[in-house]
């Protein structure tokens, strides 16, 4: 009898919680009916139970029939674009890693073994990360698109006059745009993630002798930056899925932009996002001497850079949203 | 030959899937529970796997074609299904549609058969 409970559990645990109990009870009484029919009053053996359960079939299939619809993260409609983008992303990640590796060897050929190990490690971590972000972006697209197809089904009274006009040139999103965007963001993420110590001013003293980093390596600022770029990728994926500027798409991009903006504000206000010893290190590297006119200028630029970067980011993100609205308007 | 059999199996499965619903609706002017319906249909020559029928009953209920009620008076609680008023209407219409399909397909098959025989 325990086998029956195990069977019922195997079926119901794959069902939505609110249906579980009722289906379990019904299934139990049905199995007992089947057992009764089979044994005709004699004692029920394990073999009887087994045969009845075999008749009902694999619990996974039964659960699937109870659920009715198949569930998926990325459906057949966007599968092709998903695969295409995935390939692009994975190739660009691999390329970025390899380029980083080569740069490191050129600059520091002695510890080539260390770099190689680092290269392998980052390969193992970065490829799944890229895979994850891409899939995440498309899963959101699928979710949004899924609502769309449902709406279409409800719309029963269809006639040719209801056909949507072919989106005009200005409203269409050329495929290469989001793809280029995705590649760009991915490369930036890679560069930041693997070699943020090279993101700064390169000091040459006859030969390469080090980098004065822009960012504070000890805080999480870089991760927030990567997060923002991740949102950028999601946005590009949405564009690719929609293929044209629609009101919904503009809303979605505006929302991702808003989240990015919040992240930017947190990032800039957070503790020491920038390298706190930037100016000091510049002086130490002999590039500047304290008190000179250049020093003052660089110092001023450095101190105001945060402000200006925020301004540029904010304008960029807002413009991105406005641009979308304009593109919708133009076609009307 | 086994290839043909495989194809026939597949096509028959598809064909049956559509007709089972009509079969089920036809038997539910009286309340039935899952297993009694399997036996009832079986007796009348329509073999349905329990694993297919039970989820189908629930789905039809969800679509509003069937009403259900738990009967807890007997030793074993059972869930009984019965045609709802929508279900009755749907079933009647389905019967009309079914007869149409049968007659037009019969017409097609006979026409083909007649021609074939003529050529022989």
UniProtKB/TrEMBL annotation, chain A:
<protein>
    <submittedName>
        <fullName>Uncharacterized protein</fullName>
    </submittedName>
</protein>
<feature type="transmembrane region" description="Helical">
    <location>
        <begin position="307"/>
        <end position="326"/>
    </location>
</feature>
<feature type="transmembrane region" description="Helical">
    <location>
        <begin position="119"/>
        <end position="140"/>
    </location>
</feature>
<dbReference type="Pfam" id="PF22564">
    <property type="entry name" value="HAAS"/>
</dbReference>
<keyword id="KW-0472">Membrane</keyword>
<feature type="transmembrane region" description="Helical">
    <location>
        <begin position="88"/>
        <end position="107"/>
    </location>
</feature>
<feature type="transmembrane region" description="Helical">
    <location>
        <begin position="223"/>
        <end position="242"/>
    </location>
</feature>
<keyword id="KW-0812">Transmembrane</keyword>
<keyword id="KW-1133">Transmembrane helix</keyword>
<feature type="transmembrane region" description="Helical">
    <location>
        <begin position="249"/>
        <end position="268"/>
    </location>
</feature>
<feature type="transmembrane region" description="Helical">
    <location>
        <begin position="179"/>
        <end position="203"/>
    </location>
</feature>
TrEMBL record, chain B:
<protein>
    <submittedName>
        <fullName>PadR family transcriptional regulator</fullName>
    </submittedName>
</protein>
<dbReference type="InterPro" id="IPR005149">
    <property type="entry name" value="Tscrpt_reg_PadR_N"/>
</dbReference>
<dbReference type="InterPro" id="IPR036388">
    <property type="entry name" value="WH-like_DNA-bd_sf"/>
</dbReference>
<dbReference type="InterPro" id="IPR036390">
    <property type="entry name" value="WH_DNA-bd_sf"/>
</dbReference>
<feature type="domain" description="Transcription regulator PadR N-terminal">
    <location>
        <begin position="25"/>
        <end position="92"/>
    </location>
</feature>
<dbReference type="InterPro" id="IPR052509">
    <property type="entry name" value="Metal_resp_DNA-bind_regulator"/>
</dbReference>
<dbReference type="Pfam" id="PF03551">
    <property type="entry name" value="PadR"/>
</dbReference>
